[in-house]
Specification:
The complex is a heterodimer of chains A (256) and B (259).
Chain A (H helix, E strand, L loop, with lengths): L1 H27 L6 H11 L4 H26 L5 H39 L2 H7 L4 H39 L4 H11 L2 H27 L5 H32 L4
Chain B lengths: L1 H16 L2 E12 L2 E12 L3 E5 L6 H9 L6 E6 L2 E2 L5 H7 L3 E4 L11 H12 L5 H14 L15 H13 L5 E5 L7 H18 L2 E5 L3 H7 L2 E6 L2 E6 L1 H5 L4 H4 L4
Parallel strand pairs in B: 3-8, 3-9, 6-7, 7-8
Antiparallel strand pairs in B: 1-2, 1-4, 4-5, 9-10
The chains are: A mainly alpha (256), B alpha/beta (259).
Chain lengths: 256, 259
């Protein structure tokens, strides 16, 4: 019985999220545009997330390099360390880790903010003023998350490569030029482009899930907490599902 | 006191001649098994203050949320200025909301915006051709009318409950609505602030010649602001009368509110 109920709830929720997402394409992208609020959200979602994404990317690049070195030394291919690290960061680790950090920071903040607006009737107040809250609150946040995450990932990858350069130089000496020459020589457009494209979908998923959870928050402070929490959990799971789909698509297109 | 009653009687006679701005017919709304409104009928004339009286949970807030289109009724019709809002598309409904104001019990002030931005918010979106000077003038006027001009650049978190209620009132009035719906405007306020809010409701209503529906449990407020009192009982309009007539009623269902 509980399996049936859970399945029904899961399907109901999936349908509701699909409907909410559909509304973005039918209502959210139509004029009139809330340009000022969009820029404000780009500042909050993008610029204010940069220090956190940058710090985690730097540590990730450094640690990854230090942990890969012993294995490569064993196989006698230590000189390939920049190539290995560069490929791993640009193709997979950079986009996924940055997107997960982004989901934790932005998904929860959107879920909690809209959830608290919902329970304090601020969303209803917009509605009764004849202002479409979906356009003002949802479209702007989803656009900002979709636009900002790819930029953050590109910046995060760059910072991560700097971390990797420092990691390489902890136990050996490699010049800055040689390190980055090796990294960029090993990378092609088919490594960079799919990785950037999938971050657009990661950003969209984080934005839409955060907004959906906040918009459908139940009454009370507990409801707001649940919205924030479930926004992070669901968007993190979606990031992995999108990643899985992306790797299958790139495989079919011969980009791997 | 006697003069006030006479004045209200004169108003009632005048109101009887006016066209209704809201006509509710056979309204039904339920949540699952729980029937909240059933076969509810009401007609409200221009310039009239109608107070809806009823027990907690009797469906008063549901009624005004149906009127503004926040809740969709199960059946029945709600005609606002002659147009049935239950048959309107989302855009048509938004358009009709320009003429209707709603004051929330919780005030619903946008807490991430300053007081100025709260008042500007509906203006900028509805009156797109409005100049910056005009916006500044209307915001200043709105705040002056509720006696809070000095709070213009403050954040909502810096203001008291009574001040927020007045700001919410100023925001509701800024588009000059012809119908105003108040959800328990004086609940949780001290008697002095309550009286100030009641006076503001009356003065702003007179200024704009608006019609109002006021939900209240506060009998002082009911007495002070009502032209007509409607008793909502078991989802239906039990009776519709003036405060003075209801106050002397021998009906047990009515008497319990006037004890």
């Amino acid at each position: 019985m509980s399996i049936v109920t859970n399945t029904k709830e899961f399907l109901d929720e999936t349908g509701a999220i699909a409907k909410f997402t559909g509304r973005f394409f039918t209502t959210g992208i139509m004029p009139r545009y809330e340009t000022k609020e969009l820029l404000n959200q780009c500042y909050i979602i993008g610029y204010k997330s940069l220090p956190l994404i940058g710090l985690t990317a730097f540590i990730m690049g450094l640690v990854l390099t230090m942990q890969l070195r012993p294995s490569l030394v064993d196989y006698g291919v230590e000189s390939q360390l920049p190539v290995m690290v560069g490929l791993a960061i640009v193709r997979e680790i950079g986009p996924v880790i940055s997107a997960l950090i982004f989901a934790g920071k932005i998904g929860s903040s959107i879920g909690a903010e809209l959830g608290s607006m919902k329970v304090s009737e601020q969303i209803d107040a917009m509605e009764v003023s004849g202002i479409n809250p979906y356009k003002y609150l949802v479209a702007t946040r989803v656009f900002a998350a979709t636009l900002m995450l790819p930029i953050l990932v590109i910046l995060g990858d760059t910072i991560s490569l700097f971390g990797a350069y420092i990691g390489v130089n902890i136990k050996s000496v490699t010049s800055f030029e040689l390190f980055f020459l090796q990294v960029f020589k090993s990378l092609s457009y088919s490594d960079i482009l799919p990785a950037v494209v999938k971050t657009i979908f990661f950003g969209f998923a984080v934005g839409i899930v955060g907004c959906y959870k906040g918009f459908n928050s139940s009454k009370g402070t507990q409801g707001v907490g649940i919205s924030a929490n479930s926004a992070v959990v669901l968007s993190s799971v979606l990031i992995f599902i999108i990643d899985l789909l992306a790797v299958q698509i790139t495989e079919v297109l011969g980009l791997n | 006191m006697k003069m006030e009653t006479t004045e209200k009687k004169v108003n009632k006679v005048e109101n009887d001649k006016k066209d209704p701005v809201i006509v509710i017919k056979n309204l039904k709304k339920s949540f699952g098994e729980k029937v909240v409104l059933t076969d509810f009928n009401l007609s409200i004339k221009q310039g009239t203050n109608v107070v809806i009286l009823g027990k907690s949970g009797s469906g008063k807030s549901v009624l005004i949320k149906c009127i503004i289109g926040l809740l969709k009724p199960d059946s029945g019709s709600i005609s606002v200025f002659g147009d049935d809002i239950t048959q309107m598309s989302y855009d048509e409904l938004n358009e009709s909301r320009n003429r209707v104001g709603f004051l929330f019990q919780s005030n619903a002030i946008y807490d991430s915006m300053t007081i100025r931005e709260n008042l500007e918010f509906p203006l900028r979106r509805h009156w797109v051709d409005i100049t910056e000077e005009e916006i500044d003038r209307l915001v200043a006027e709105g705040l002056e009318s509720v006696g809070l001009a000095s709070t213009i650049d403050m954040m909502p978190s810096e203001l008291s409950g009574g001040m927020l209620k007045r700001i919410a009132l100023a925001r509701t009035m800024i588009l000059r609505p012809e119908i105003i719906l108040y959800d328990e405007p004086t609940t949780g306020l001290d008697p002095i602030t309550s009286r100030e809010i009641e006076d503001l409701i009356l003065s702003l209503q007179k200024k704009n010649n608006a019609s109002s529906i006021i939900i209240s449990h506060d009998m002082n407020c009911v007495k002070h602001v009502s032209d007509v009192v409607v008793l909502l009982l078991e989802g239906k309009c039990y009776t519709e009368s003036t405060y003075a007539e209801m106050a002397v009623s021998t009906d047990e269902n009515i008497k319990q509110f006037f004890l």
